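Objective 1.3, modelling of assemblies. Example input:
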Amino acid sequence: MAAIAWVTCPHCKGEFYCKIDDFEDSNHPLFCPYCNKNFLYKESVRIKK
Amino acid sequence: MGKDLRDFLEKLKELEPVIEIDREVRPASFEVTGILRKLEERALFPLVVFKNPLNLKNEPSPFYVISNVFATRERCALALDLPSDKANFDLSLRYAQRTKNFLKPIIVKKEDAPVKEVVVKGEDLDLRNYPIVRHHEMDPAPYIDMVVCFRDRSGSFYNTSFQRNMYKGPKKLGLFMATRHNWEICRTYEIHGEAAPVIIIIGHHPAFYLGSLNIQPYGVDDYGIIGGVMDEPLSLVASETWGEDFLVPAEAEVVIEGEVVPRIREAEAPFGEWPGYYGPQRLSHVIEVKAVTHRKEAFWQDVFVSHRENWVLGGIPKEGEIFEAVKAYVPTVKSVHFPFSGNCRLFCYISLDKQEDGDARQAALIALSTCDFIKYVIVVDGDVNPFNEGEVLWAVATRCQPQEDIDVIKWVKSSPLDPSLPGHSEGSKMIIDATMPKRRAFAKRTMVPEEVLKKIRLEDYIDEKLLPRLPKYFDSLRSL
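Predicted structure (tokens):
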């Protein structure tokens, strides 16, 4: 599996993980699986690599 | 009329109970997978039909959700016209034989195609009208997890593969593809800045789906291979969106037509996948849906991904095709098995009657080069049954010296869904030679003389009524 990071949604605080390469240095937003809101990787409340 | 899911269900009902659930269920709220999981906890894997599912708008849906079709090898054997007592390696061999029997598809008129009973496109098209299943807690949306089919840009072949499609909007799906055949076809469109036509086939005879999992070389027309596995030419009909330039299976329950939008990627997943873990959220392709065609009261088929059905389905095609590949160079190979413990993908057990010591590694290397899912190959002698994992591990414990008999091959392409991979899709492979060496004398396996066993009837020595009451212990060496 690709290198992953656990991220935390700034809207609902839900935690999930993403492929670091796809989101870390990009403007593509993440999609929270719990509240269905978008946020950028850098906006994650916590990032655990 | 060609083979379809409905024929299969009628045949199955003569052999085993099919569970039909009348109570309303909400597939998008985990209720389908919740029921399947509760059955699994009791070691029950029936085929289940949910007769009253709600759609994504929480309205009654005129579809039946059907799942667990592939959860037992016995049902897969029936799909390939074999009895249940031939569901182990006989089934794998039947599969391999049929993939060699390429059958050119036949084209039928629209009025003869059941999948065209209802055609939905334009303003009426809304994916929320369908009972799409959400499988696991961290999945961000309902997913379609059936077969996706592309036609290559030159129009010379179709390629099918199980791939996941995330619901993203009334006319929009996400699509994740590993870097294999469908991905390559899509890439050729994308480098020309063109949208790639694609269809999703939801509900068909199980032999259709088993055939779609063939591991033939890139460029072989999967519709012809599928016909071979079904043992009859696949019936095709012109699509709504591209006409005869893209033919779709006429006997399917539901076909979704769409286009992969070039140079667009969006967040998709996490999604619970076959290894038993969620694949991470990633940037994946996007499908713009153009049309949906289906039968009246169609079966909306779903695979309980990450569970037994998903594993059985993945293993059978590989067993037969790897056996054939190995047999070309090691003709004394006896059997190949992908056990549940490796999700029917990561472990490959091969048995052979070794003629020389090099046979074992040769067989293992062929298996690894035939299928990139495999992470561990264990080769055993012909007296060990690869379908009995306890016997295989006993052979590893007693016939293998790690310093001599284990090899690791580093930095090899692997499944990107394996959570242990350190990089994107490069991993390592292990070959375990658990065969007895030919180069030196080796101990003999204990055996009570066969001629004595043939003569003894336990009932002649022990009270017949007592025998069934004795506690049973299926230890690891016993064939179940």
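Chain B has a mean pLDDT of 95.
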